[in-house]
Amino acid sequence: MAENTTAVRGPYFDELTPGLVLTQPPAVTLTSGLQAAHAAVVGNRLSLALDHELAHRVAGGPLAGPALVWDVSIGQSTVATQHVKANLFYRGLWFHRQPLLGDTLRTTTTVVGLRENTRRVGRPSTGLAELRITTVDHEDRLVLDYRRCAMILLSPDAGPTGYADELSTGSGAWAPSDSLLSMTAWDLGAVPRPSGAAWEVGGTYDVVGGDVVSSAPELARLTGNGALVHHDRRVGGGDRLVYGGHSIGLAFHHVCQVFPGLVTVAGWKACDHLSPVREGDYLTSSVSIEGAQQVGDGLAALDLHVTTSVAETPVLSWRPVVLVASG
Questions:
Q1: Gap between the Cα atoms of 84 and 163, Å rounded
Q2: Residues whose CB is less than 8 angstroms from the CB of residue 82 and which lie 6 or more positions away in sequence, other chains included
Q3: Contacts for 208 with CB less than 8 Å, ≥ 6 apart
Q4: What percent of the chain has pLDDT over 90?
Q5: Neighbour tally for 222: CB within 10 Å
Q6: How many Å apart are CA 118 and CA 116, to the nearest integer?
Q7: Which element (helix H / strand E) includes 36?
Q8: What domains can you pick out in the chain, each with its CATH number?
Q9: Residue 171 — pLDDT band, cuts 50, 70, 90?
Q10: 3-class DSSP state for residue 320?
Q11: How far is residue 218's CA from residue 243's CA, in Å, rounded to a whole number?
Q12: Average pLDDT of the chain?
């Protein structure tokens, strides 16, 4: 690098410290244009995000699709993960409010745990960073508050950090007491109850057909995701790795096909990335219903386990809770 030149970059693992709050990224206003561009990449079959008249009756305004909201939030958190090698998991991503188009999101990212990985000859040194991600809207109303764990490179020639924190595990501790927490102001009686919609606890539903992963760097730019592995083939080992939200968004697109009466997503107990996804991969999903709670006339909160695969190799294990209407 030339003299008097400063590198503009995100932190390496050894530059993080527990309790560190990362620089605030730009706030993002959710618009119909942003939602349309997002849907062109990951799909959108959610009625409340497509039908503004219905959304006005139920939610009081045009709904921002939940996949767009969590992708913007995750993208804003990448101020901490420009040098990420992989994203391992999410825990406890619950909606406290379901944003509308026109709302503006701001996200704070705080380091809550660090653990350096065992060093191996011939491999770059890495560590695991558990991050608490808190997203609020323009009126400072809480939207999301969750944990994310990323594997991040150490800086070149960095010495041992000594970090050995215990990081979050499992999903049992991440369920809220009220699955309708984010929908208390909604008129759920105005939600259509589709006839013929059927499901059963213990059932597994394989979505026939799938979706190709396309426009991967475009989605990363759209959502403000600055991780180098999604933009630079060299950093990804010869192929760009796909932003985790891309795989999750396509999995949600598949879930909407299983449940025509899907109202929205209450949140996730957990989500684990099992294997990398690359541009051009073809994703298919299998959806299992692990539990159900009746929350109103013709309305149920379903605990799902979604397994998304590439050529029969699982790449995603996702446990969302969704609100579903049936006749």
A1: 17
A2: 9, 10, 11, 226, 227, 228
A3: none
A4: 79
A5: 20
A6: 7
A7: helix 32-42
A8: 13-157+188-325 (3.10.129.10)
A9: low
A10: strand
A11: 10
A12: 92
Angle of the 244-258 helix axis to the 32-42 helix axis, nearest 10: 80
**129/266 Cα distance (integer angstroms):** 26
CA-CA distance, 150 to 65, in Å (whole number)? 25
Number of neighbouring beta carbons within 10 Å of residue 114: 22
Q: Which helix (H) or strand (E) is 54 found in, with range?
A: helix 52-59
Q: How many CA atoms are closer than 13 Å to the CA of 182, on its beta-carbon side?
A: 26
**What burial class does residue 160 get, using C-beta atoms within 10 Å of its C-beta: 0-12 exposed, 13-18 middle, 19+ buried?**
exposed
Indicate whether this model's pTM tops 0.90: yes
Residue 236's pLDDT is what? 60
Beta bridge pairs of residue 64? none
Q: How many CA atoms lie within 13 A of 220 on its CB side?
A: 22
Tens of pLDDT along 185-242? 999 999 998 877 678 999 999 999 899 999 999 999 999 988 888 887 776 666 778 9
Alpha helices by DSSP H, 177-295: 216-222, 244-258
- With beta carbons less than 8 A apart as the criterion, state whether 270 and 90 touch: yes
Task: Name the one residue in this structure whose structure tokens are 């059932």.
Answer: 203
The fraction of the chain above a pLDDT of 70, given in percent, is 94
102/28 Cα distance (integer angstroms): 10
The alpha carbon dihedral of 30, 34, 36, 41 has a sign of negative
List all residues 6 or more positions away from 6 whose beta carbon is below 8 Å from its beta carbon: none
26-35: average pLDDT: 98
Cα 82 from chain centroid (whole Å): 17
Q: Which residues of 67-102 are buried (b: 16+ CB within 10 A; e: fewer)?
A: bbbbbbbbbbbbbbbbbbbbbbbbbbbbbebbbbbe
Give the C-alpha separation, 35 to 49, whole Å.
Answer: 9
